[in-house]
Design a protein that fits this description.
The protein has helices at 2-9, 13-26, 34-42, 49-54, 59-84, 88-104, 108-124, 128-141, 150-183, 189-199, 210-227, 230-246, 255-271, 275-289, 294-313, 318-326, 333-345, 349-357, 363-370, 372-388, 392-412, 416-430, 438-447, 458-472, 476-484. The chain has 25 helices and no strands. 76% of the residues lie in helices and 0% in strands.
Length: 485
Amino acid sequence: MKTIKAIWATLSDKDKKDFLFFLAKRNRRGDTRNIDFVKLMDSGRTKNIDEVLYGKDSSGAFNALCKRVQDTLIEFVASKSFAEESSDELEVLKLLLASRIFFEQKLSKIAFKTLEKAEARAKNIDNYALLDEIYHTKIQYCFLNPKWNLNTIIGDYENNKTLSQQDFHLTMAYARIKSELQKSPKKPVNEIVIQTFVEFDLKINEDLTYKSLNQLMELTATTAKLQNDFYSVSPFMIEMYEVLKKKGEVPQKHIYYHLNMLYLMSVTQFRNKNFELSDDFIVKIETILSNSPKTFVRGFNEKVAILKALNQIYTGNISHGFEILNNGVETSLNKKLLLLMCLFQQCEFATAYDVFKTLNRTDNWYEKKMGWLWVLKKNIIEVLLLIELDKFDMVLIRLQRFSRNFNKRLRQIGEDRVLIFMNLVSDYHDNPKIVTSEDFKDRVENSFEWIGREQEDIFVMSFYAWLKSKMENRDLYEVTLELMN
């Protein structure tokens, strides 16, 4: 049942409807109960489903039903994935097989053309495994084509072998980096990357493919996000971006990687409070998107809009930030959390709480969908909102839940600052008058290890701004901007 629920949570509303249709087509009997079971599960029912389905306690029949539904669900996901998978590899494979058949049937002329077409397509998608097979075939039948040079083909084969080996080494390095980060979550990612590259004899230079550069940037940015430390990785990100620039004009087939790397650079600059530089990267993204397929536009539009809004908010243009956030039909979870933050900074607490109440799923669901840090921010904002709205009974319950759900995980990653902050929030909740006392100010000053504006994470500073505004009895947004600048 847990596995079924976990898979089900990953499906879109359309996928869920398609799965029910998939089940209906597979059903040969009218009493299979699988569709009823899925509908009950989707409605949130988790207990005594067997009694609802069978009219009595039928754990054996229910377990068998769960097994069948799970197997069918896995089959559905696999079929859907295969149907949506890019057909480029299949097309190359078809061309390669067709060329071999033509060679066997002595149709050499059409075989040469078909094989060369396969080679061009395989190069276009950087498929080294298929290119390896293509070069094997070219070498085998080279004697039939006076236009083919055996030494040139062997050279192409050796070059492809080198690229394939490098790609494999990068895959191993990527896995090693992720493994090391899990073991040492606070260790600087650039140190781990440098050590791993030395181990696998890899260099950060123009020989790296766009895919590899993008993977490294993704990994670096993800780790920086988890460690709340974009300052330390910034030189490393800039080094990789310089490599990207040295590679020259980015081919159209690598446009996604280019866009994503520009986006990651923009995020890095924003998190380091270099708002103007962040906007410069956004302009580059929008220029490329204006001449790109709609699939890319849809994928990046919202992410770019959120980043634009953030840059506006933290440079004093909060009304423009609101305007950007309210553009577009869909309101994603990221947009909702940002809108909530904007309203909170403007002391529109009642309106912010109305937005918060629309986030009515469980934290487990949000964590699977958005990640643990998103859930952490959501919970901190909830506590602060409830304090501002004088919902004191609810504050106590939420503080206890926060301690139960987050204390252990925060200590594991060395984020004691969040725990210290929440303890100070709890003290303020117990006695709001103490916040302006010298003793409280001294406690705050001595509780945190201040690392300076440039190094400190922007979101850490944003939460601290709330405490500082209480201590100094000043406007929250004004204090936030002052800390940023």
